[in-house]
Automatic annotation (TrEMBL):
Lineage, uppermost ranks: Bacteria, Pseudomonadati, Bacteroidota, Flavobacteriia, Flavobacteriales
One Pfam family recorded for the sequence: DUF6146
Species: Paenimyroides tangerinum
Signal peptide start and end residues: 1-21
Protein name per its UniProtKB record: Lipoprotein
UniProt keywords, alphabetically: Signal
Domain of life: Bacteria
């Protein structure tokens, strides 16, 4: 159930992004972690993604790579591949992939969103013993 809620939050959070936003080198994204709720927002791009998963919070603190370990281009490439795989499985009706993730490679979501999405998808793969690529 918490995965469904998380996916809904990702879906509506990413959906609220302007799909025609221009690429920009600046990232004003902010992440806030409180009691199992992770909020990622950027007022300039008008997005907010909320993750409700206490397991992800502890995983991110212990196993997630530090910011700056991967560059933005790497995160965007991995997210594009993993989201495409996720969405293909979702459209095929596979269990556990109840919703598609609305992620567009031509939108600059900034470092924070790409960092958190990358880490969440990595966490999801590890905890479910499934590969997305």
């Amino acid at each position: 159930m918490k995965k469904i809620i998380l996916l809904i939050c990702f879906y509506f959070g990413i959906l609220s992004c302007a799909s025609q936003a221009e690429k920009s080198s600046s990232d004003k994204g902010i992440s806030k972690i409180e009691n199992g709720k992770i909020t990622i927002s950027n007022p300039e791009l008008e997005y907010e993604v909320i993750i409700f998963d206490a397991g992800f919070e502890s995983w991110l603190q212990t196993r997630g790579k530090q910011r700056g370990y991967y560059d933005l281009a790497y995160l965007e490439n991995k997210n594009r591949v993993w989201v495409n795989s996720w969405n293909s499985r979702s459209r095929a009706g596979k269990a556990g992939y109840d919703y598609t993730i609305d992620y567009h490679s031509n939108v600059n979501y900034g470092f924070e969103v790409n960092y958190m999405l990358f880490n969440y998808l990595l966490y999801w793969q590890e905890t479910n013993n499934i590969r997305l690529n």
